[in-house]
Every structure is written in structure tokens, then in C-alpha cells.
Amino acid sequence: MHATPLSRRTVLAGTAAAAALTALPVVQGRAEAAEGVTAAPAYRWRNAVIGGTGFVTGVLFHPAVRGLAYARTDIGGAYRWDDRTARWTPLTDHLGWDDWNLLGVEAMAVDPAHPGRLYLALGTYAQSWAGNGAVLRSEDRGATWARTDLTVKLGGNEDGRGTGERLLVDPRDSDTLWLGTRHDGLLKSTDRGATWAAAAGFPATPSATGQGVTLLVAAGRVLYAGWGDSDGRAANLYRTTDGSTWQAVPGQPSGAAAKLPVRAAYDCHTRELYVTYADAPGPNGQSDGSVHKLATATGKWSDVTPVRPGGTTADGSTDAFAYGGVSVDARRPGTVVVSTNNRWAPVDTLFRTTNGGRTWKSLKDSAVLDVSETPFLTFGADEPKFGWWIQAVAVDPYDSEHVVYGTGATLYGTRDLKHWAPQIRGLEETSVRQLISPPTGTAHLISGLGDVGVMYHDRLTASPSRGMAANPVFGSTTGLAQAAARPSYVVRTGFGDHGNGACSHDGGKTWAPFAAQPAIAKDAPGPIATNSDGSVLLWSFVHWDGTKYPAQRSTDNGATWSEVASFPKGATPLADPADPTRFYAYDTDTGTLFASTDRGLTFTGRAGGLPSGDSQFQLAAAPGRSGDLWLSTKWNGLYRSTDGGASFTELTSCWASYTLAFGKAADGAAYPAVYMVGSTETITAVYRSDDGARTWVRINDDRHQWGWIGATIAADPRLYGRVYIATNGRGIQYGEPV
């Protein structure tokens, strides 16, 4: 669960196990440094705990080390599980701004003969606008990495991201690795992933739009590769016995229910390979599927599908779904767990067999779910559901009753096959859109998120006790604002089935939907602002495809709305923090600052000639000051106005500014601390200035970069030095001086 113009899945989903304490140098901008500036103190970075919220696309227990496992996500990197501490450690937070496309993990692999070795195939999108993929190689379980950049693209957040694994260490030779790609066939490395080349002899021909190699699995010394570009009639499963010659597996199933091999697992005791199939790559769009097993010694195939898709549900609709995850029990021959996927009406389940697939039992039917640690998993309902988008399933090779499965929002685990709870501590994959740090109240943070709405963070070290904001429940949040002089009043907007705007009169603890809303709000709920005393709402509307609509204004808490024709369409409204009569908006199409002095009734152009067409920008107001405006721009740096937008001055201490926020001033400082994600020299990083942006200090470090972090930040008005960072897949990071 990313925040670029499309949905979280198209463009872009516990505290961090280890905190870094790093001395930080002063970074001077192009402006002359002030005298007496000293190095910033060490910063500690942690996650504000929510718990998951994103798609866990793969889980891999190490076959030779008890209690060691790895997880991959579609936009939030990879993690290592430590059974002793019962938490996940993030492994890819070192990837920085320029490597944002590597936060999606396409595949992972371990070497059974060398427990320290871990390999990751990274690349979020295979589109023309995204960079190529890369392979990370570790000898110490992901503590340190070597990197090989690929000449092909990978798609950790594309359709088919729940298939796999597409990366494999050859069981005959630990120096040999195989990597299945979506559009470039099968790759091979003979130097432990340092270099890669096309694998000779692989017969399938990739297409520009297909899935390519969907899985790689070893069955003893024989390697199998799934192929996702078949039409359901041609071969989609290949094997090699010598690493050079590949052939279609004889007798393999065909038809729509076996069109695409999703995952495979090998039972070494019975010498049987289990394969799950679907009619589409998923995780959405699947309606048929099956489970088959191959007796590798005899070549005999058997259909062991637990329940055939296509039946009738309780409401009379068709029970359409596919099969996804599969894992064998290393301790018990013939014991296998498989998952359904895209089964929305009866909800997805796990099926378990102890007799090689002759009979199956649905684990959902007897499951007791406990989501008290992450209350948002009820999604506004009375009870949580067993899950959806289940394509990652793993049975602990050292504990037959320890089973985990990933969903679109969490990772569930059990130790007795009956009681299930999120096994998610340390794993945070939220795509964050909005942040507020209130000046008063219990919570120091309110967040607006992709997919899981708004949360009131009564504690930063535990998932919000209220879960997702209800009444109404939102999917992705598009707007979040607080009345500066009346902080008990908060408003939010977003995508929801029962309303797209809501207000709170208790600082964000409880909510009520607007009594009415403009018709366009259902399809294009954009950002919202409220003036400093909370008497006026100004709501902008932008469709996900970029279409902009006239803003609407309300003076009765959302009971009635009227169009504001003079407001620049699609702009983000900003309220003056000290004067309730003033609103502002920056029109990036024309490079003009618009302002209102009649409570948002009319807007007129003020400063012109500002950067136009900038792909990323933010207009912000310094707290407690009327007319003190800051404009940050991706390509043109930072500008400031002290006259309500009549004129702006360029600040030369940085050359790129993506987002900024204001927090409590340093001791003795006359101006609030300014925080920025931007570039002062060559690196894009998180900076703080205690002298009004004359000079900056970098406050994150090379181990804490989190890819793309340009959506928004917030700074704490009550605690000097604390800043909250919105990431696109690593949740909310917050840092503070040690």
C-alpha cells in the first residue's frame, strides 16, 4: 500500500527493530552559513506503529535455521523474522530517493547450504517510466548488501506480484542462481548473482504484456519453472535436469482452471510437486483455478483441488476464485496447505490436507481471530475477516502448527491451527498521504493513509486503539486539516462507500459525516481546508485521472455547499493559521498564487511568475503568523512570502524542495524549526533548519532513507526536533534527537 497520481496499487501498503544513532554533519546550502552553527545531535528513527496495512506477497522460512524467515512486500521492501524476539527487521531502508523503484520486491531466495546468504530481486514497476531492477546479495542475512543492477525491469507491484518465488539458488551449485523475469525470459548467474545473462535453452518466448516466468522451484536436483504467457492450451510448466536443457513437463493440466501456475512446493518425503493454478495472474481478476500434484518419480499428475470454483454463494452469486499459496510440511509427509485467492463473497481461506490431497479441511471454519494488537483489521465492521489476497503461505519447517499467511493488509500466524493473530510486529507497509501533529490533545499525530483511511495515534508505539476512523470508513485519504485556532475541529476527505467527507469536534477521536456533499465528491474527493476558527470549509476536487473540478465552500459544517468559481481548479486550499478570513492556493499551471480575504468566497491572483508546471510542490504557512507563506518546488527550490502572497523571494539554501513542515522552535530561536525533504547539494534527504532556512542540517542517515518520501511531513509543535515522515510503503517514520 504509494502516493503518486494513480491508486496505491498502480502507482504507488511495530517499531523498527533497530534504531540508528548517528552523528549528523551540518550541510550548508548555497547561502553563506551563519556563524556558530554546530553539528546536529544524533537522531533516532522509528516507525509509528500501525502494523502491516500492505500486501505481503511472499514468506520464506529458512529450511536449515530454526526461527529464521523472510517476507517480501509489493512496495515496502523486505524483512527478516527473528523467532526469539517475535518481530520483523526491515532490510531495505537504506534504499534512497533515486532508488524508489527498488522498494518493490519481486522475489527472494535463500541458500540452504549457506544460512547467511540471502538474495532479493528488486523492482516495483516494469513500465517504461520506471528504472531497471536490481539484485541485492547478502552473506549476513541482510545486515549488509552487495548490489547488481540489471538491464531488465521487474514488477514487484504489478499484476502477478503474488506468484513465485521467481528467484532460486540451484541446489546442485550454490554459485548458480536463476531469476525469472516478466518480459525478458529466464536469467542465470554463475557467480552468486554478481552478473546475469539469458539462460540458454529455455524454450518459452516472452511477450511484452505477459507474466513470463511465474515461479522457480527445486524438486531434488530437478528445477521447475512456471510460465505465465500460455493461453491455457500450450505448456506452462518446464523443467531441467542438467541446468542446460529445458523441456515442457509431460501430461501437465490444461484449460482455464490451469492456465497460469501461481506457486509450487515440493514434498521431498513423497517426491510430489504441488502446483496451484489460476486463470489470471492476480491478485485481482481471477475467477477459476485448481491444485494439481506431480509424482516426480513416475510423471503421474493428479487433480487435488480442494473445492472447485464456480459454485453458488449464499446470496446466489457465483463463487469465483483461484488458488494462490502452497506450502508443504517438512516434518509430515503428505501434509500441505494451500490458499484460495480473490474469493470475495465467502472470503478466502486456507485448505490443509494430511493425506496428499485426498481430503482437505478449511482452516477458516474453525479459526479464532484475535486482532486486538492491530484493531484496524476490523475495517469498521464488528469482526475481522480471515483475509483476502492470500498468495503467500508458509509452514514452519520446524513447527508443523506454525503457519503464516499474508493478506492485502497483514500477516496472520498460528501456533495451533485454530487461534490466529497478526504476526506483524516490525513490518510496516503503509502508503502515507496526510499527516497532522496537533498542538494539544492526547495524540501527537493524526494520519491519512492509502487504503486504510485516517488514524488517531494515541500512542506511537502501538497500533491506534481506535483503529480506522469510522463514520464513515474511508479507503484512501485525500485530505486532512485542522483549525489552527480551534484544534478540536478536524476534517477529512477520501474514498468511501458511505460518504467522502467527515468532521471531528474532539480532535480526531470520533467523527461524523458531512450532512451533505457535492455530487462530484464520490468520484473525485480531493484535499480540504478549514480556516483557523473552523467556520469555513473549502474542498477541492481532483479525479484520479487528473481531471480537475471547481472547488466547493461550506459555512455550515458541510450541510450545504456552493461553488467557488474563482478558485483555481484542482489546487490544494491552504488556510491562514492566524487570520480566519484568509485562504490561499497555488496554481501550478500558471505559476500564480491566489488568495482570498473574504473567508474563501472569492479568490484573486497575487504573485505571478512563480514556477509553473512543476510536477511536485507544496504551499505551506508558518504557524501563528498571518501571511507567512512558503512554496516548495521539486525543480525550482524554495520560495517565501511574508505579505500574504503578494510577492515571493527565492531562498538559495536549497535547489530542490519536495515537502516541508514547521515545528517547535529551538531554545532561544525566534522562528519555528523548519523541516524539509529536499536537496541542498547532491543528495535528497531529510533536513532541519533552526534559522529560517538559512542553513540546514541533515537529520536522517544513509541507513534510513525509505525510498520515495516526498508526499508530506509534519513536525511536532510541542516537542522540538521531532518530525514525522510519510513514506510510500514503509509507514510513518518519526525521528527525534537523542
From TrEMBL:
It comes from the Bacteria. Keywords: Carbohydrate metabolism, Glycosidase, Hydrolase, Polysaccharide degradation, Signal. Belongs to the glycosyl hydrolase 74 family. This is Photosystem II stability/assembly factor-like uncharacterized protein.
